[in-house]
Amino acid sequence: MSDFNEQYNKLIDEVRVLVKKHARGRPPSISVSEETAALLTALGTALSGTTHESASASVADVQDKREQKIEVEVRTLEEENNEMTTPVDISSLTTLDEIAQVITACTRCPLHETRNKAVPGEGSPQAPLVFVGEAPGASEDAKGRPFVGRSGNLLTDIIEKGMKLPRADVFICNVVKCRPPENRVPSPDEVRICEPYLLRQLEILKPQVICALGAVAAQTLLKTTDPIFKLRGLWHDYHGIPCRVTYHPAYLLRNPVDKKKAWEDIQEIMKFMQDQGTVFPSS
After folding, report:
1. Which of 38, 80, 146, 154 has the most Cβ atoms closer than 10 angstroms to its Cβ?
2. Distance of CA 110 to the CA centre of its chain
3. Residue 246 per-residue DSSP state
4. pTM for the full predicted model
């Protein structure tokens, strides 16, 4: 009897919550879960004359099914979490094309559910200069190519009009290879899961210089939480590769006053490559 009363009280509490949540200011009808409907049926049976033992058995059966369902859901979440937390092993991949194929098929984080196309990156496999951005935007997601929207046009102008280089002579990619919904900043988990792809790309490219575009790219490469105003204007070391930090082109479109500072950063890169006698693929 006490078990039945306990189940009855739980049922009333659940119905009360549902009514407050769904029926305020609406007609007095609400939708309930299958489990709640079954509990109501069991309760109705009990109140119509069935013994408490029979009603309690019905309630217990519903609870067992609910617990089984929860157990399956928890197990599924644990499996998904294990997949995301286990580092992807791409050490056997030796070309950028191989990495691109893996990225295109990747389902390791929830971003694959909302992407149109993954964006591995593009450019020369012999590129001495690599630009690393944050994540694809809407235009990149539609085409599967990095920096092809408005910010991409600005980056192309910086490379071709400013640096006097063919865009195809450099390599352009992002830390995160799939577009975050609404162009939000990638989450730490998304960065962590996707980072091995970027690191392997850089291992294969072995560029002479890296230009980090924006805070996310800079903080990921340099393993720091420093804001961009502390990182730009200086040379940094990425596994022996000189790295320069500047503003993301999307930021420059919103804050054109900082284009002068970004150009100063690019000029430092150009001077470094000139001093090193850097040769580009089309030279």
Report:
1. 146
2. 7
3. E
4. 0.71
In this predicted model, what pLDDT tens digit does every residue of 229-243 receive, in sequence order?
999 999 999 989 999
Q: Which residue has the tokens 């503003």?
A: 247
Residue 59: which residues within 8 A CB-CB, separation 6 or more?
4, 7, 39, 42, 43
Render pLDDT for 80-100 as a digit per residue (tens, 0 to 9): 455 555 667 788 999 999 999
CA-to-CA separations, 154 to 8, 158, 162, 264, in angstroms, rounded: 65, 6, 10, 15
Task: Find where tokens 């067992």 sit.
Answer: 64
Assigned token pair, 183:
């162009």
Q: Which amino acid is at 84?
A: M
238 DSSP β-pair partners: 241
Smallest CA-to-CA distance from 158 within 51, 80, 54, 265 is with 265
Q: Two tokens at 176?
A: 């995160």
pLDDT over 50 at 204, yes or no: yes
- Cα(189)–Cα(208) distance, integer angstroms: 29
Count Cβ atoms within 10 A of the Cβ of residue 244 and give its class: 0-12 exposed, 13-18 middle, 19 or more buried: buried
Considering the four listed CATH numbers 1.20.120.80, 3.40.50.2000, 3.30.565.40, 3.40.470.10, the one that applies to the domain covering 96-276 is: 3.40.470.10
